[in-house]
Design brief:
42% helix; 5 helices; single chain; alpha+beta; Glutaredoxin
Amino acid sequence: MNKGNIPLWIAGAVLLYIGWIAFDMLRPVSGGGMGHTTSISAVRTAKVPVLVEFYADWCGPCKVVGPMVEELAQELKGKAVVIRINVDEDPKLARDHGVGPIPTFIAFKSGREIGRQIGGIPKAQMRQMLGL
């Protein structure tokens, strides 16, 4: 290797790294399981109310309400859609919906926001947000 080509190799490595980061950020992320999704297209198309929880794995209150949200998703199958969005995996979606503190719960009906709660809330309040 010629010493005169070292800057070219460095520039190539930097460009390759930037390209890898861009590719990684743009690829779709699959949902984590029941009640999880990274797309809230269900909000626009659902014939039933939709409750979206914005959370993070490191968030203490999110860890407390997470199991309740999962239970609610199972209990309301067919009556409502319950979605969990990880803000670390989809920060743009969280920003687009004005989510700051987490957990944040947003209820939608016919594609329109009908309610918003910040912080850990009981399952009964989640149901109430959905009008159920």
